[in-house]
Each structure stands twice: as C-alpha cells, then as structure tokens.
Amino acid sequence: MTRWADDHPIAICREAMAELVVIDRLLIREETPDDHPAIATVVESAFGSPPVARLVEAIRASDRAIPALSLVADIDGEVVGHVMISYVDLHADGVERRIASLSPLAVAPACHARGIGSALVNAVVERADQRGEPLVVLEGDPRSYGRLGFEHTVTHGIHIDLPSWAPPEAAQVRRIASYDPTLRGRLVYPPAFAEVTHHN
Hints:
alpha+beta, Aminopeptidase, 9-stranded mixed β-sheet, 28% helix, 9 strands, disordered N terminus
C-alpha cells in the first residue's frame, strides 16, 4: 500500500532537487485503489480546493472515467502528482460526441518546477493516442501547455465556456494521430464537474 504523510513529498523533492535526479527516480504509472487517499491529498494541496479533490472521485465513479488514463507520478513509492483524462461532450447541430478532456492535473506544491507535470501530461496524452483518441482538450495556461503541443481550441472550431478571469486562449486542444477535423462544436461538461465552480 502506498504510504502517505504530509512531509513525504516535501522531503522527496528537496532531496531529489539536491541530487538533480528527480526525473530519473520518477515513475509514471496507472493509479490503483491504494493510491486514492494520496491522490486526494495531492490534488487538494495543489489546488487549495477540496471540491477539486472531490471532482477526481466523481469522475472516477462516473461513466465518463477512463481508468487507463488516470495516472500518478511516483517517486520512491510516494505519489507526488496525478493526472486524468475522461470523456466530455462536444455539441454541434444537435449531435453529441464524446471527446477526451484532461482535468485535473495536480503536482504536490513542494515538487513544482521539477518537470513532473509535463511528464504526466505527455504520458497521459501518449496513452490517449495509443487508444485512438483523436484529440485532448483542457483549460489551462497557454504558456505552459503550448510547450507541450496544445493550441487554442477556437482555431479548430471547438468552443469552451471559460470563467471570466481566464483568457480565451486558456481553451486548449492537442491534436493527435487520429485527429478528426469534423470534431467541432461547444464543449459541455458532464455532471461530475458540477461542483467545480470554474466549470459552471
């Protein structure tokens, strides 16, 4: 079973920073039920928001979950990051299609700026690509996600209703091998997202 205490990721990342080997010691793997308490702690600490931690649980329990696309960052047996892709709806001309959405991404605050978030995103998108998903959408900082191959969704005909404080470019998409240019429309989040106010 994965061990967890509030000081573990801090100690791990401080040590790794000193040794400059954090990525060498980093394992990206599928989450297991034993990881769930640690994931909740990482997500809540990363966002400072219990509702986001509950979002992970709600997605996991829904019909939109994709278990193979819920990954953790593990350093020496401790969970220091988490990412998940699940299905959301794309509405256009009365037609609904399911597409892959990356949300949320969380890294323990003490482990920021170590490349862990980028490693999680690249790993989960690669797995989505292997499954034949045509694209992945998200809401996020275009400066960060642009480095990882994401682009403004509007350029590709996908519209996401963002919170008032977010720039329009925060609506992001990464096209992958099976990209289908007919995937256009307005993104609608499923009920699992209802409690997270920035998706309301």
